[in-house]
Amino acid sequence: TEPNDDPNFQQPRLYFPWDLDTTLRNTEIDRGIIDQKDDGHLWEGLIEELDEAGVPFGYPTHQADYLETYKNLLEGPLELSKILAMVNSIETVIGAEVDADPYSQLVAESNSTEEFQRIRDYLTDRTDYVTAQLEALEPLPGIVVLDDGFEGAVWDANWNDIASTWTDETTRVYTGSHAAGADQGGGTGYFTSDALDADDATAIHIDFYFQQDSAATFTLEYYGSGGWSTPIDLTALGGDEEWLYYRDAITDSNYFVSDFRISFNATFSGGGTRSVEVDDVVITKEAPLIISGYILDPCAAPVSGVSVDANNAGDSDITDPDGYYELWVPSGWSGTVTPTKAGYTFEPPNRTYTNVISDQLNQDYTATLLTYTISGAVGSLDGVTMNGLPGTPVTSGGGLYSATVNYGWSGTVTPQKAGYTFSPVDRTYSSVAEDHIGDNYTPTLLTYTISGAVGSLD
Asked: Which SUPFAM superfamilies does the UniProt record give (predicted)?
């Protein structure tokens, strides 16, 4: 469609004027484009050949093959050799020979710039359409907040149509047996969804089918924190009495509210039968997903103060007194979560995620505090008590001692044994973060003097 002159008009992401049908023949789609452009006569022969061959538009095999063929043809200058190469490619796809006679006209007009430009225009439309079909067959991302084909016992259970002309339509439907419709019953007809919780959204996706028959106006609006959006003119997207497909992605945070709504509005004028219909409305929201868990020590005691970081634009958190952390990542996120805290190792050291599409709970880690050794010898003297060290070790095996301390340990170590002095007298440690091997002491046995006299007798 041609761009709308209104600068506030929001062009939908996808639009095509044919039913989404995976069995639709390529020829039917080609004819639709040719009829729309009214200048594709050079392709009539090929179309007839494909029609006779009964080539389906099956997803994904033929769609992918044809899309690649057309894209290759559109790259660089449009030349006859590329067109013939496309014919060969089509023959490969359908497993049958395509009559080359229709291309005699192309050979005769191979120098016609105008003719080749018309072919390029056609192929561009065709490629855009196939691309749209491929995308439309992909499900909307995120969490479904509304999925309504109006087939319920209360057809408008998810909508507010008070004082409007909208009714349960059972004749002009896209799928199923029901659609929402309005006709020239008079006045303005608003058809507004109930409030949808999009408060935590990072994107909102809108998807529906619609048709209109000579409506004076037929618009779509979104509701957010700033009120209702500028109306989107749906009549500008196609002709009368033709089911059209609409898809849009809202990334404006003004619409990420707990009472998000969409509203259709139709007005009519003049005589005759005039109506609008909407069917198969799907709205999803992309919301941050949670990665959460606990970090405990080997004895299942919580470890607080651990930094937990998700790379690739992910979230970060610090464990609370219960050892709990919670990260928020966007839908489809891939990356690595890594816990860190000075003096600790973690098992596992990190976790890798690919295409996260649901909450990841109970992502726990075991944190083990680093320990270090303080050891040495007190000469070769056994039985020396090393006061201040954890466990108060006593030298043995020739004066040796050893103790294990936790990361960050601080204290003063003082050797003690009756009858001995030591050098150094003690050692002070502060925030230990490495082993201390060979912290030796020298013991000195105390000595005393016993003296006196035996009269004056030598």
From this structure: Carboxypeptidase regulatory domain-like
